[in-house]
Design goal:
about 40% helix, TIM Barrel, alpha/beta, about 280 residues, eight-stranded parallel β-sheet, two-stranded antiparallel ribbon, single chain
Length: about 280
């Protein structure tokens, strides 16, 4: 496993397991336990996913020490007014006395109140790092400008067709780590995995197009949390460390970028309304 050193010195595994839509709690716990058995050391959940308890049970049941597992959760925007208390509740569901990374899930509602609660939790040692999710460059820079702690991570939709290059420039400027969710596009870009260029690169390494996608993002310095509930895909996603793409291949994959989010665009009114109704 390779790690990313965050801006506060915390080491974060660059490949993790996402649990979005893992609502079958028994299955979620099972796949998290399997992930830890395979070698994953990073599990991402959220209050809005409703599966923090399953993640906590999996970590508790695993033979892997808690200190070796990096747990991320995200605060629902509906709890921004009492973010401090909500994180303590998440901690209980996760069966842990600290959380490695806590993110604001969306740039909606009272984000400043929520961020200052996170700063307090960070100062108290209950949280090892704090960050944001779905923050475009302008929202990120604004948050940094009016608060004390610079986010350690910005978790945004990032995949072959949405590589977040403009936002990444600002992340790099302020030392914010770039984390990808939906690295495969959540089924909205499956046709890309039939592209001749991607298939040709995959064949050179005897890998799948999705493995090439993950390898590309990792080499770009992007933390990845592909979601799956299938054991075989779990193993496939983890098998991306034994090879290195050439610069020519990296350039070819960069050309897939359309700079347009398929999912995580907080500026779209329908996305705002959907999130507020969640």
């Amino acid at each position: 496993m390779i790690t990313k050193t965050l801006n506060n010195g915390v080491e974060m595994p660059m490949l993790g397991l996402g649990t979005y839509l893992s609502k079958d709690l028994e299955l979620c716990q099972e796949i998290c336990e399997k992930a830890l058995e395979i070698g994953y050391r990073h599990i991402d959940t959220a209050q809005m996913y409703g599966n923090e308890e399953a993640v906590g049970k999996a970590v508790e049941a695993s033979s892997v020490p808690r200190s070796e597992v990096f747990i991320t959760t995200k605060i629902s925007h509906k709890r921004y007014s009492d973010a401090y208390e909500s994180v303590l509740e998440s901690m209980k569901r996760l069966r842990t006395d600290y959380i490695d990374l806590v993110l604001l899930h969306w740039p909606f509602a009272d984000t400043y109140k929520a961020w200052r609660d996170l700063e307090r939790l960070y100062a108290e040692g209950a949280v090892r790092a704090i960050g944001v999710s779905n923050y475009n460059a302008d929202r990120l820079v604004d948050l940094i400008g009016y608060n004390n702690v610079v986010p350690a991570v910005d978790q945004v939709e990032t995949n072959l067709t949405c590589q977040q290059r403009e936002c990444r420039k600002w992340m790099d400027t302020y030392g914010v780590a770039h984390e990808s969710y939906a690295p495969f596009g959540q089924g909205r870009m499956d046709e890309i995995y039939e592209d001749k260029v991607l298939l040709e690169i995959a064949s050179r390494y005897n890998k799948t197009p999705r493995q090439i996608t993950l390898r590309f993002l990792l080499q770009e310095g992007v933390i990845c949390i592909p979601k799956t509930v299938h054991a075989e895909r779990l193993s496939e996603n983890f098998d991306v460390f034994g090879f290195t793409l050439t610069e020519k291949e990296m350039e070819a994959l960069r050309s897939f970028d359309k700079a347009s989010p398929l999912i995580g665009n907080p500026e779209r009114p329908e996305r705002v309304l959907k999130a507020l109704a969640w």
